What we know:
Radius of gyration: 22 Å
Largest sheet: 7 strands, parallel
Strand content: 15-25%
Helix content: 40-55%
Shape: globular
Number of strands: 15
Number of domains: 2
Mean pLDDT: 93
Bound molecules: uridine-5'-diphosphate
Amino acid sequence: MEDTIVLYPIVSIGHLxxxxxxxxxxxxxxxxxxxxxxxxxxxxFITPNVxxxxxxxxxxxxxxxxxxxxxLSIPSSIEPSSNRSRAAVLDELVRLNNPNFLxxxxxxxxxxxxxxxxxxxxxxxxxxxxxxxxxxxxYYIPAGATFLSFLLYLPTIHNQITxxxxxxxxxxxxxxxxxxxxxxxxxxxxxxxENQGYHCILEIGSSLHKSKGIIVNTxxxxxxxxxxxxxxxxxxxxxxxxxxYCIGPLIASHTNHTxxxxxxxxxxxxxxxxxxxxxxxxxxxxxxxxxxxxxxxIAVGLEKSGQxxxxxxxxxxxxxxNKHFFIERRVPDLDVLLPEGFLDRxxxxxxxxxxxxxxxxxxxxxxxxxFVTHCGWNSxxxxxxxxxxxxxxxxxxxxxxxxxxxVEQMKLAMPMKKSKDGLVSAEEVEKRVRAxxxxxxxxxxxxxxxxxxEEAKAAWSxxxxxxxxxxxxAESWIS
Length: 479
Ligand code: UDP
């Protein structure tokens, strides 16, 4: 019988891409020993960039089998709403897919030995399916060790305090390996104990230690302090910590970028016409959107900064903003959204791209010298691998925690600060963009980022920490 590794991702771009890269890595290093199957669950909120990515990945990597679970009739109750967080919706979708997931695992097992099932952390409700079949299960964390330490420590925090984080405005949480972080900066799904999402995340945190291992998309020298805290067992005080494999950075390979077409070519050729390290890139992940008022502040700040910029802009939120996690398209009308005359006045030094840009390629362009980012973990790793310094402007999920470590521990980013009205003012945008691109302060960040880029490369070179961790994990599948 053939030996196989099965991957079970969440079908959103920030979770999917690095997991498929992990599958490619297994094949690159161990194609003589293992085949790789990626199981794609039925998912009603699939976005065009995910569809494009899956099409491209299956074309360019025919050696990976992509197995799509049959579509499901999804109950209308699954629509996200103000009191149902994304975590709760994902949890329910995984459970709905469980019967089909079981059938597929049983079918694969007839012809192959599943040496490892690697599941996205949000697939935790499928773990009983795998354990019922006796399949060794690993969790994959597409985020950093920072988020992992929070997840592992959440059950302890839960027992120590009784209030919801949202009621602890003056409190900082002390999570092993991390700087003190305000309770309000925890992921939004966890802010309210009454919210189902909180209990889903708590459940994930409690299940991780029952796995054969935890695979994290990070590398030793990027998050050394928190990795040590986790592996020393400080995050799970009452039980043994399973093996933790830090095998990053896994980022989208250039051939797998997630968009195609005219706007891509336009923005890359525009960048190629700019001077070295002269452009600041503003991009806020797959789900980052701002209010109209905030868009205006950014525009005014960018204009006043006098810097060259490439800005990825989406249509602002409506009142019903909880659905923004799952929406399909957010193509903005630039003439309506931007201050009058903005595009004309900045046309010689700025480009606004609608909705989506090929971020990995952009960050690796010679002309890009800074990145204003929402601190999504893939974006952080992509900037690290390109050696580009950042301004940290977190929006959702674990991004506020990422900002804390980027600013206070790694010192690879300067923070963007909000005013009392909750907006980042034009003055703040101008100040940070100038500091990053023009001032001595920015040069210090650039030099640190260049060094971390080298560390990222070293992690996957001979004797590098990620290569060693990956080999150790793969060897355990063989024996
Ligand atoms: N991305 C991109 N172009 C865009 C916006 C995002 O290519 O205009 C990619 C980005 O390179 C990253 C992913 O989408 O790989 C976003 O993942 P991240 O973890 O940064 O944020 P999330 O979308 O999960 O919040």
